[in-house]
From TrEMBL:
DNA-binding region: 22-41
Species, as recorded: Desulforamulus aquiferis
Biological processes annotated in GO: regulation of DNA-templated transcription
GO molecular function ontology, one term from the record: DNA binding
Protein name as it appears in the record: TetR/AcrR family transcriptional regulator
UniProt xrefs under InterPro entries: Homeodomain-like_sf, HTH-type_TetR-like_transc_reg, HTH_TetR, Tet_transcr_reg_TetR-rel_C_sf
UniProt keyword DNA-binding, yes or no: yes
Key words, A-Z: DNA-binding
Coiled-coil ranges (or none): none
Residue ranges constituting the HTH tetR-type domain according to the UniProt record: 1-59
Top-rank taxon: Bacteria
Length: 184
């Protein structure tokens, strides 16, 4: 039942956001009472925390799975760097989470650390196999990706340049993997 409640909350958050969904909505969608929801979660805040943690666990699993995909180092890097789930959540939900539930947003730092480790390992493999340039320090590549992606998920930056996360991530992917110089 706990997992069903988390799933229902995830769907309701997708429709109404973190602040506007209600425990009544979840109970109604599952055909249970509010009392049953409160049997598993003491508050709406605890339920939100569980939804965020559930999402982060899925993202961690996705990052680790990307190491196992067949293909080039570029394919693997693409899979781990750009599996942030930006297609799953509209920008306004991410913005709401950052603004009104910063303690939940901070939980993403653990996911970022895991992804950074996976990226470092993939870059090292790429350099060793000759698929990636060996004249650029892997640490600089990792730092560039980390800070760029952090900046993209800051809703203020997105608003400032009138971008969506998806648009920004696609441009970053082209810059990192193809460069900024015109090909002749």
């Amino acid at each position: 039942m706990r997992d069903s409640i988390i799933q229902a909350a995830t769907e309701e958050i997708g429709k109404y956001g973190f602040r506007k969904f209600t425990i009544d909505d979840i109970a109604s969608s599952l055909g249970i009472s509010k009392k049953t929801v409160y049997k598993y979660f003491s508050s709406k805040k605890e339920l939100i925390s569980s939804v965020v943690e559930n999402h982060l666990e899925m993202e961690k699993a996705s990052a680790l799975e990307s190491m196992q995909i067949t293909g080039s180092i570029l394919d693997k890097l693409n899979a781990v760097v750009f599996c942030y789930g930006q297609e799953k959540a509209p920008e306004w939900i991410i913005e709401e989470l950052q603004q009104y539930f910063p303690e939940e947003w901070e939980k993403a730092a653990e996911l970022n650390e895991l992804k950074s480790g996976v990226i470092r390992e993939l870059i090292q493999r790429g350099v060793e196999s000759g698929e990636l340039r060996d004249d650029i320090r892997p640490e600089i590549i990792c730092l560039t990706l980390d800070k760029t992606i952090d900046a993209l998920f800051d809703y203020k930056n997105l608003h400032k340049y009138d971008l969506t996360i998806s648009q920004a991530m696609e441009d970053v992917k082209r810059i990192v993997f193809e460069g900024i110089l015109k090909k002749e």
